[in-house]
Amino acid sequence: MTSPEYGETWVYESLVGTVPGLDISARTAVALQFLGFEAAILVVATVYDLPAAVLPGTAAVVVATIGSWLMIQFSRTVRDLPTPAAYRRLLFGSSIDVVLGVFAFVTLVTYLFVVEPDSSGQSLVTDLFGAEPPAVAIWLALLVLWDVVYRIGTCWWASLVGCWRAIVYEFDPATTHRYRRADAINIAFAAVQLLLVPFVLEDSLLVAVLASHVVAVVAVTALSRTLQ
């Protein structure tokens, strides 16, 4: 997947584009992401007899894969626009999307392994992986969760920088319309996370967090569209 210069891409794009000798299309990269993670989930679930983890794991992989595709579409749409250099550097080059993803991931892991378990030790983790979860299964689950949570951080950052762009810059009507199309991609990016809701329905806090994430992104993006 050929990509723009380093610093003008998401971390996901940079990782794929900088692997020596690797030059594949975005579609191929996303397909390989899905197939690799899904195959790993099926193998681990079969080896350790974890049928309850297959559907939630697949849903998480689907969310991450769709998120990867929408990230690429969003970044390409933005780069095709007459983008101010400061906006592009802030959006792609600051790595704040990774920082937000790390904070969200650490918070999620703390909740799943420390806060959520009841006095008997029952939790979402034990429901999916049993009372004595295999280390390999937990490792894979955390890797997939990071893939999902990183995209949540990226989505947040894109919406916040989009609001800043709307406050600082003015564009002609045609360019404004194209920016609004990019913002619509980011809303879809957030909405994809709702595919995880059916698998956490018994945890009202996680449902509330997912719903609040989407509502917040829609609200911030609506504000930027109004200001723009």
TrEMBL record:
Where is the chain membrane-spanning?
A: 54-72, 92-115, 135-163, 184-201, 207-227
Q: What is this protein called?
A: Uncharacterized protein
Q: Which organism is it from?
A: Natronorubrum aibiense
Which InterPro entries would you find in this protein's record? Answer: DUF7530 (IPR055952)
Which keywords belong to this entry? Answer: Membrane, Transmembrane, Transmembrane helix
A Pfam family found in this protein is DUF7530
**Superkingdom to which the source organism belongs:** Archaea
